[in-house]
């Protein structure tokens, strides 16, 4: 799992609190930068509909955040050389051409793409459909890459493994085989070097009609000697079975054929080229998807904060939203910052707030907004 680059608290409070100045001066000893998180005015339906939209937004917020994390993990696993700090890389984490943290700290609604004259439910649908489709594309591409990589590794094992498993197309020659014979066959046996003496003393009597002194050394490596043995075709399977009992390794996967050999020579290069192409396609798609899904995620988050704030503080909308940054040096203070915020603004206590300060009957909606209920709108976000 990738480590976060930075963590943020996003807090929405009624405008009358003058919260921004207090956050900058007092929260975390003034060490945590505070940014204004601009919220546009959205087309609000009924308060009842906002409660349902709040539940849907919470699920979608979590889903898109998970998609972003998954893409970062994919980028780190596919291109580990570009990863820094436990899988996070500034070069990979670009959102619309900006580092992710810069995008968050300067977030503004993309009104040209997501028109604000649309109802909230319609906006959410458009944003969600685009992001989920991209997420599915990345998952499909990653699955294709894993298949291509598996094929390449299998071909690589054949090319570079020991003589019991490796491809033999660059090793065998026609003279190692009895070809075009109606009655005779040649069997290839990879014999562990520790069992060479056993093989030489017993292979001729392993079955009937093994051609005496027919075993010839085809190749050797650090672990095995590859022999070619000629015998009558009728006893070939019996000879193979008996070889396995002696813990030798018959290469039954290999049949001499010029056509097959040519295909095997092409296999490694083809799987390597396919793996490289699919990998590059995946990296391009994942980086694009990271940017677009991250942007969609924060547009959904902006709507969610707006909806929650209306449900908490009432109508007309009158609240301000701040983004508080905690980097690696100050991240451990995020829990204390939450406590300080609750100590300072806990008097809202879940009751709606208006400019007169006398509350309203919206507190019944506020209690439905979040499972982890806070006395004001507060979210923690990790950027990876």
UniProtKB/TrEMBL annotation:
Keyword Transport: yes
GO molecular function: proton-transporting ATPase activity, rotational mechanism
Keyword Transport: yes
GO cellular component entries: vacuolar proton-transporting V-type ATPase, V1 domain
SUPFAM superfamilies with a match to the protein in the record: Vacuolar ATP synthase subunit C (SSF118203)
Pfam family, one: V-ATPase_C
InterPro entries: ATPase_V1-cplx_csu, Vac_ATP_synth_c_sf
Quaternary structure (record): V-ATPase is a heteromultimeric enzyme composed of a peripheral catalytic V1 complex (components A to H) attached to an integral membrane V0 proton pore complex.
PANTHER family linked to this entry: V-TYPE PROTON ATPASE SUBUNIT C
Role according to the record: Subunit of the V1 complex of vacuolar(H+)-ATPase (V-ATPase), a multisubunit enzyme composed of a peripheral complex (V1) that hydrolyzes ATP and a membrane integral complex (V0) that translocates protons. V-ATPase is responsible for acidifying and maintaining the pH of intracellular compartments and in some cell types, is targeted to the plasma membrane, where it is responsible for acidifying the extracellular environment. Subunit C is necessary for the assembly of the catalytic sector of the enzyme and is likely to have a specific function in its catalytic activity.
The protein, known as: V-type proton ATPase subunit C
């Amino acid at each position: 799992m990738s480590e976060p680059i930075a963590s943020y608290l996003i807090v929405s409070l009624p405008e009358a609190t003058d919260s921004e100045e207090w956050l900058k001066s007092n929260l975390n000893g003034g060490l945590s930068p505070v940014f204004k998180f601009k919220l546009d005015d959205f087309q609000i339906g009924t308060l009842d509909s906002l409660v349902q939209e709040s539940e849907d937004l919470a699920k979608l917020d979590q889903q898109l955040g998970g998609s972003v994390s998954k893409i970062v993990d994919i980028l780190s696993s596919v291109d580990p050389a570009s990863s820094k700090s436990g899988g996070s890389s500034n070069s990979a984490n670009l959102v619309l051409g900006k580092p992710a943290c810069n995008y968050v700290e300067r977030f503004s609604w993309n009104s040209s793409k997501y028109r604000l004259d649309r109802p909230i439910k319609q906006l959410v649908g458009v944003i969600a459909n685009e992001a989920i489709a991209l997420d599915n594309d990345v998952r499909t591409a990653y699955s294709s890459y894993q298949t291509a990589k598996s094929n390449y590794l299998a071909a690589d094992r054949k090319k570079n493994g020991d003589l019991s498993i490796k491809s033999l197309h660059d090793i065998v020659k026609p003279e190692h085989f009895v070809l075009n014979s109606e009655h005779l066959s040649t069997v290839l046996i990879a014999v562990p070097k520790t069992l060479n003496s056993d093989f030489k003393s017993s292979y001729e009597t392993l079955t009937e009609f093994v051609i005496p002194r027919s075993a010839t050394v085809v190749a050797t490596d650090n672990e095995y000697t590859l022999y070619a043995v000629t015998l009558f075709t009728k006893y070939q399977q019996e000879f193979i079975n008996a070889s396995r009992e002696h813990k030798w390794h018959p290469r039954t996967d290999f049949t001499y054929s010029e056509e097959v050999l040519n295909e095997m020579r092409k296999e490694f290069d083809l799987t390597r080229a396919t793996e490289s192409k699919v990998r590059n396609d995946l990296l391009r798609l994942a980086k694009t998807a990271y940017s677009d899904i991250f942007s969609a995620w924060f547009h959904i988050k902006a709507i969610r904060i707006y909806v929650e704030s209306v449900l908490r503080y009432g109508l007309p909308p009158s609240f301000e939203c701040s983004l508080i940054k905690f980097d690696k040096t100050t991240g451990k203070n995020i829990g204390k910052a939450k406590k300080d915020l609750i100590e300072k603004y806990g008097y809202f206590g879940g009751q709606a707030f208006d400019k007169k300060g006398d509350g309203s009957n919206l507190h019944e909606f506020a209690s439905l907004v979040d499972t982890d209920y806070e006395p004001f709108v507060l979210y923690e976000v990790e950027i990876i």
